[in-house]
Amino acid sequence: MSANTIPITKRGAELLKEELHRLKHIDRPAVINAISEARAQGDLSENAEYDAAKEKQGFIEGRIKELETKLSGAQIIDPSLLEAEGRVVFGATVDLEDLDDGKKMSYQIVGDDEADIAANKISISSPIARALIGKEEGDVVSVQAPAGAREVEILSVRYI
Fold this sequence. Notes:
Layout: E1 6-9, H1 10-40, H2 48-72, E2 74-77, E3 93-98, E4 104-110, E5 121-123, H3 127-132, E6 140-145, E7 148-158
Parallel strand pairs: 1-2, 4-5
Antiparallel strand pairs: 3-4, 3-7, 6-7
């Protein structure tokens, strides 16, 4: 991976493409229409609808540019096609057991834009993901958590 490519799972890229399509084909035309309607009302100096629509247009255009940049620099990885021979790599789903309290957990390692702890998706740049990368099933790993270091055992590594 070169310094300017951003890893993203296939599903993450699909979600960004869906958002980009919605912004370009639904939100952008709607805000252009809102600006036209506000202009038709006459004096723009005290027209709150016009100001709000222009502000929203700026946000939409900025987000479109951001998404296009991310997608153009993305290295799309399909976890189901990985052949990492049991090692923890980007896109892998890792089943863990906390050796301190016996709690089991499962995380998929994803790109920064895809991270969602509620969905058990952790960022590649998070401390736990950095500790797990390159390790294998059966390895015990020390992970820095907010409450201090925790020992976790890798129960399984899946590429789904």
